[in-house]
Amino acid sequence: MSKQYKGILCVLAAAFFFAIMNACVRASGDLPAVQKAFFRNVVALICAYAVLKRSGTPVRWKKENFWMLLTRAAAGTIGVICNFYAVDHLVLSDATMLNKMSPFFAILFSFLLLKENLKLYQIIAVTGSFIGSLFIIKPTFANMDLLPSLVGLVGGLGAGVAYTMVRKLGMKGENGEKGPLIVLFFSGFSCLVTLPYLVFFYHPMEVRQLLFLLMAGVAGAGGQFAITAAYTYAPAREISVYDYTQVIFSALLGFFLFGQLPDRYSILGYVLICGMGVYMFLMTRREVKRRQEE
To answer: Taking Cα atoms as reference points, which of 15, 13, 17, 2 lies closest to residue 273?
Structure first.
């Protein structure tokens, strides 16, 4: 299996895990976004440490990679907190749409920072997926409150920067860092940053809320491992479009967990997103074959 296909599978897995995470975050009720982010990341921290411990990998990074790891951790922390804030204050489909701006930012920063060229079919696929997402958020997009919307957009930007740094670390090969260590660094940084808030402004929780947050943490950890692996396998321009499948996974979870049914415009958006995903897959496969023949 080529690295592109591995990256695609990892993105699909990450989209599924993150959809579960958002559903659990919403089900946890009225809690501060920072508090939700702490419990989500403390579980990821434990999981990442367990993976490193089991494999015998030392918890140590290369000095030259420190600033990339720090940038990834800071941007990722901002992205998670802003996303959770948007989920709490906006219609869920609007919050998801704003967070799904991350592939655009990832491609933009990959072009600016990593000098990765864009191909026409990649631009078409990402643009088509964006249009499909607009069909899903249609009625409430014009009525969103300004502050939560801007916060959600910043969350997408933060995630885009974070994914770009993961890709840059992956491009370094043996001189880069392993996925579990990247997740550990990010989760540990996020916990340290949000811990002071919990000390001074802790919001009491019911057992049910705690369980939902722990479930969100497990799903978030799975998503982090998958998305970290994805962007070390392949460039953002080749695989980021598949991140839009999270919208489809969220629709399915919304139906089975909350009894939500999409309308015909949302279904049209799902079809368009899936169509762009298939188109991207076929074009990527054609390019891989062409490279092999050369």
So the answer is: 15
CA gap 150, 154 in Å, rounded: 6
> 45-94: per-residue pLDDT in tens?
999 899 999 988 888 899 899 999 999 999 999 999 999 998 787 767 77
Closest C-alpha among 45, 3, 65 to residue 232: 3
- Under 8 Å between Cβ of 116 and 182: no
DSSP 117: P
DSSP 8-state symbol, 90: S
Q: Which two tokens stand for residue 88?
A: 């709490």
Element (H, E) at 17: helix 3-27
What is the residue-wise DSSP string for 48-85?
Answer: HHHHHHHHT--S---GGGHHHHHHHHHHHHHHHHHHHH
Radius of gyration of the chain (CA): 18
| Token reading at 252 | 């399915």
Chain centroid, CA 278 distance in Å: 20
The two tokens of residue 130 are 């964006």
Burial of 264 (0-12, 13-18, 19+ CB in 10 A): exposed
What is the tens place of the pLDDT at every residue in 20-51?
998 899 899 889 999 999 998 999 899 989 99
259 phi-psi bin (left φ>0, alpha ψ -120 to 50, beta other):
left
